Recover the amino acids of this structure.
């Protein structure tokens, strides 16, 4: 499967079709999807999959640009037509939803702040300093594989 088949906004729309949510929560769910893709599938699950180590946790500039100005309102799906994903990608998204979907954006922010990929990317940035450092996909793969307790992928 070639990751060029899907786009990060299609991943975002998949989650928004599950429930309306804050921009912060959406960012984190998409981040965890990409990160676990690197860990379990050894690849990016979509194009435009870069996440940066922003103050409030991992953030995709692409998702930010799509929803900027939404402030604190809950986001609606980009469209009601959910993209059909291959079975492996769909299973990964469902697993991320089951694992993280019941949490708030703030709790996901706190969780990401305790994890090495985000911490490593922010090493040269102050606590409240803007940071556009990219979170390394190798760091994602290694960290999430190290905490994986499920069945073999």
């Amino acid at each position: 499967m070639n990751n060029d088949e899907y786009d990060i906004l299609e991943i975002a729309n998949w989650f928004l079709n599950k429930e309306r949510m804050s921009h912060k929560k959406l960012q984190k769910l998409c981040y965890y999807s990409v990160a676990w893709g690197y860990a379990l599938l050894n690849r990016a699950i979509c194009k435009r999959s870069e996440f940066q180590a922003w103050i409030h946790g991992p953030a995709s500039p692409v998702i930010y640009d799509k929803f900027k100005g939404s402030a604190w309102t809950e986001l609606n799906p980009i469209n009601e037509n959910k993209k059909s994903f291959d079975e492996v990608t769909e299973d990964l998204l469902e697993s991320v939803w089951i694992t993280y979907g019941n949490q708030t954006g703030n709790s996901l922010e706190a969780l990401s702040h305790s994890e090495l990929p985000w911490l490593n990317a922010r090493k040269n940035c102050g606590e409240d300093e803007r940071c556009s450092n990219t979170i390394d996909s190798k760091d994602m793969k290694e960290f999430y594989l190290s905490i994986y307790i499920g069945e073999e992928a």
In short: The beta strands are 52-54, 57-59.
